[in-house]
Amino acid sequence: MIPERFKDFLSTLYEKTENGEYKWNFDGKKADLMTTAFSISIWYNFDHDRELGYLGVSYNYNSTPYTFFEYESERDYEFLRMIYDAVKISNLQFPF
After folding, report:
1. How would residue 21 be classed by pLDDT, with cut points 50, 70 and 90?
2. For residues 86 and 89, what is the distance between their CA atoms, to the nearest angstrom?
3. pLDDT tens digits along 61-90
4. Whole-structure pTM value
5. Which of 84, 2, 9, 1 is nearest to 41 (CA)?
6. Average pLDDT estimate for 4-30
7. Across the chain, what does the average pLDDT equal?
């Protein structure tokens, strides 16, 4: 479960990303954003023991990481998936 305060921050970050304010670096699995105030990463992975995919997000503030995970079967997974899908294409250029 993602804490509500952090979900509010992620919602605003999602909006700013969709509006073009933030361009994330994406390596095919993990997306990273570094600003002067904070850095954040979001990634997808598969847990072979649980046989479930999950999304992780790590927010770094004052050199302290705050990391959360959400499995496909958990309630906030689709919320994180929406953000992950948006950030991974934020730097993508389309031909038209």
Report:
1. very high
2. 6
3. 988 999 999 999 999 999 999 999 999 999
4. 0.91
5. 84
6. 97
7. 96
Do residues 41 and 57 lie in contact, with contact meaning Cβ atoms separated by under 8 Å? yes
Give the residue carrying structure tokens 């979900």.
Answer: 7
Would you state the structure tokens that stand for residue 41, as one six-digit string?
Answer: 């990463």
Determine the Cα angle at 85 with ends 13 and 6, to 5°. 35
Tell me the CA distances in angstroms from 33 to 21, 22, 39, 42, 60, one per residue in order: 11, 8, 6, 9, 10
How far CA 15 is from CA of 25, 48, 53, in Å, comes to 17, 33, 25
Say if residues 88 and 82 touch (Cβ distance below 8 Å): no
What residue type is 72 in one-letter code?
Answer: E
Domain boundaries, the chain: 4-14+28-88
Strands 52-61, 30-34: parallel, antiparallel or unpaired by DSSP? unpaired
Instruction: Dig out the tokens for 25 from the structure.
Output: 């670096």
